[in-house]
Amino acid sequence: MAASRTLRIGLIPGDGIGKEVIPAGRRILESLPASLGLKFSFVDLEAGFETFQKTGVALPDRTVETLQKECDGALFGAVSSPTTPTKGYSSPIVALRKKLDLYANVRPVKSVAGTRAFPDPIDLVIVRENTEDLYVKEERTYEQDGDIVAEAIKRITRSASSRIATMAGEIALRRAKIRAVEKSTSTEQQKQAMVTITHKSNVLSQTDGLFRKTCFDTLAQPRFASANLKVEEQIVDSMLYKLFIQPAYYDVVVGPNLYGDLLSDAAAALVASLGLVPSANVGDGFALGEPCHGSAPDIAGLGISNPIATIRSVGLMLEFLGQGEAAARVYQAVDGCLLEGRLLTPDLGGKAGTEEVVGDVVRRL
């Protein structure tokens, strides 16, 4: 048995169904085989719109300080954000990404037979820059010539663009190595490691132009070129179109914050449900797992929310914390549950409840 290691994980349910799926994520961690040599301790933390309504603060200082000083990683559930301006409120997950410098949002989109909305197998990763672009949230509204004008700053920096391109390149090479190992019994031609840079530099020549150039320069470095990494580019509107007609073609797609957000949510339609799609907010030495779905207030408390996105996010968190074997166990257990198709939640056309699905994954672990 491997020497035991204890990881401290912050648990932030947030709003709505986050309170149902984050306990499911904890249960998965607690159910990992002892042979992996991993132990976990947990700390419950608060953030979200409900926290804001109670305290006037969406992201308490204690949450940030505890994550910074005590935790190796974290799981974040979901946030209910108001659709109209609410004085004093801003998204706690956006703030967390900035405060912890979680500069990469990594969103794998993988289909499993029986649960996909597209006929061909899909296995791609969208890597989204997480700290800037329009999400810097620097806006103003003013009057001009008798009209009302609202403006927002779109900020792109070379340093942020370079490190997100590096992350995308590293993920592409790592995925290629995994495919090479899995090739042992397959006669199919293996997909080459590839990064597709998506942007709108034909219109936004300064901001997206800088992102495009920096990504190409970064991925042309010897560490990537010598590994035969293929690098392509795609204008973002065309990228959306091609994503829906040939999703099996893509490997790793990297984009600025807003485009990455839109592409990853759109890609979820290819695999039947946002309830299947995980993400990890990654920095240097810290990973926060976050399912891609929202707080789903219409089904909160009914016990029918799909926990798979959270469970896969647990796997991603483990992967970026250097626990690849534990992550692989989680992924395999989830895939086994989906392949069997006996226990599917309503978003996938089934009748199973959250606890039934979690119990099945735990049994497979």
TrEMBL record:
GO molecular function: homoisocitrate dehydrogenase activity; isocitrate dehydrogenase (NAD+) activity; metal ion binding
Pathway(s) the chain acts in: Amino-acid biosynthesis; L-lysine biosynthesis via AAA pathway; L-alpha-aminoadipate from 2-oxoglutarate: step 4/5
Listed InterPro entries: IsoPropMal-DH-like_dom (IPR024084)
EC numbers, comma separated: 1.1.1.87
Cofactor or coenzyme needed: Mg(2+)
Keywords: Amino-acid biosynthesis, Lysine biosynthesis, Magnesium, Metal-binding, NAD, Oxidoreductase, Phosphoprotein
Reaction catalyzed: (2R,3S)-homoisocitrate + NAD(+) = 2-oxoadipate + CO2 + NADH
A matching Pfam family: Iso_dh
Keyword Cell division among record annotations: no
Annotated Gene3D superfamilies: Isopropylmalate Dehydrogenase (3.40.718.10)
Keyword NAD annotated: yes
Any single GO BP term: lysine biosynthetic process
Isopropylmalate dehydrogenase-like domain mapped to chain residues: 8-361
An example Gene Ontology CC term for this record: mitochondrion
Family the entry assigns: Belongs to the isocitrate and isopropylmalate dehydrogenases family.
Protein name as annotated: homoisocitrate dehydrogenase
Provenance organism: Meristemomyces frigidus
Originating gene: LYS12
